[in-house]
Write the structure tokens for this entry.
Amino acid sequence: MADKKDHADRIKSLDGVNPVEVNGRYVVGIDREAKLLGKSLEDYVEILVSALRNSELTEPLKTQVLMKIDTILYKGYSVIRITIPSQAKVSFVGEIAFTRENSSTVEAKVIAVHERFQK
């Protein structure tokens, strides 16, 4: 994914990929990245899986995320799909919690975390 059109255009000029716009973001696939690293698609996905497995993401979210990673074909491009289930408790990466603000992930403020899980 490319967040900005100029990034998508750069990828197109470097790799010959025709980005697909989806809601202001651009799908460029992971095939080109795997190829640049000299990896198969499976080996490339394993890099991400290993990083998650060795991360400081707290349980049970870590295990749930690891169980919900797959590769799909979207308009001709291989894309890693990670399904993140709803959580009953706050999850952390190390000692930091994150929350969604529109389409961005940001560090959560203590009050926001408290309010979110009082519902």
Notes: The chain has a mean pLDDT of 88. The two ends are 33 Å apart (CA to CA).
